[in-house]
Amino acid sequence: QVQLVESGGGLVQAGGSLRLSCAASGRTFSSYAMGWFRQAPGKEREFIGAITRSGGSTYYADSVKGRFTISRDNAKNTVYLQMTSLVPEDTALYYCAADPTLHTLMVFSTDKGTTVEVWGQGTLVTVSS
Q: What pLDDT score does 44 carry?
């Protein structure tokens, strides 16, 4: 099992950019598909996007497609979320997650039976208008 720690959150003006990082411990990072999620006050946790174990493919929710980019560096045991053109609706606590199966990450928002294996502690992103 990996341990995950997010960083890079903060306050940003609408239209600005932020890059979040998720650092993983352990020697099995490349065995996990990685995902990014967010949760706004009073809302359920929402799938943002995911990346395959090798980093060869990425998938995004429609709400962030074209604005957010996920990447990973397996040599550094780190996954990134580059956010651009931020709007106040992006304000939320952002989490990274790891699971051996990409499918588990992809269906999290729609399948109540899914259980993601490892979550980070979250980092807060606040977008001002």
A: 92
